[in-house]
Amino acid sequence: MPQVETATFVSQILWLAVTFLALYVVMARIALPRIGEVLEARQDRIAHDLDTAASLKAEAEAALAAYETSIAEARARAQSLLARAAEERAAAEAGRRAEFDARIAKRLRGAEARISAAKREALGNIAELAGEIARAATAKLIGVEPGDDEVRFALAQAAEPES
């Protein structure tokens, strides 16, 4: 193995030092500054992206708050519209009910008037019919035809309650 020979040991160390020094100079002057620039640019880009993300997050939170506010306002408006519509419907219903009640009451009064008139007519007809029956019965039973005044008087006495 040539590395272990002591005769070439000094030249190997010399070349090792020259190579090390050359690599060190190349790394220190060229490669490491470029790597540092790349790392710094990356760090700047990351910081910029984080700032942008924070501002976008703030905008999103503001937009969300505005959205929730508008939703709450819309719900409140919808509730008030529903309440107003319910009140209007109830008022219209009450108006229709009052109109219907008035029509029913008018019909009821008319029906009661017709019933009362029919009752008076029926009672008048009953009195007339009772008079004719009483006149016919008296004529058949006794053979005498009573007058209108006598028939009315007899019917009036028969209609009076006994005391």
What does this structure look like?
The protein has one domain (9-159). It has helices at 9-142, 148-159. The protein contains two helices and no strands. By secondary structure, it is mainly alpha-helical.
Sum this structure up briefly.
The protein has helices at residues 9-142, 148-159. It is mainly α and 163 residues long. It has one domain.
Give keywords.
163 residues, mainly alpha, 0% strand
Count all strands and give the number.
Answer: 0
Sheet with most strands: none
Principal-axes geometry comes out as rod-shaped
In total, the number of domains comes to 1
Radius of gyration: 62 Å
Mean pLDDT: 89
- Percentage of β-strand residues: under 5%
Count of helical segments?
Answer: 2
> Percent of residues in helical segments?
over 70%
State the separation between the terminal residues, measured CA to CA.
Answer: 164 Å
N-to-C SSE string, H for helix and E for strand? HH
SS-derived structural category? mainly alpha
- Low-confidence segments, given as residue ranges, are none
Blueprint of the fold:
Blueprint: H1 9-142, H2 148-159
Helix pairs in contact: 1-2
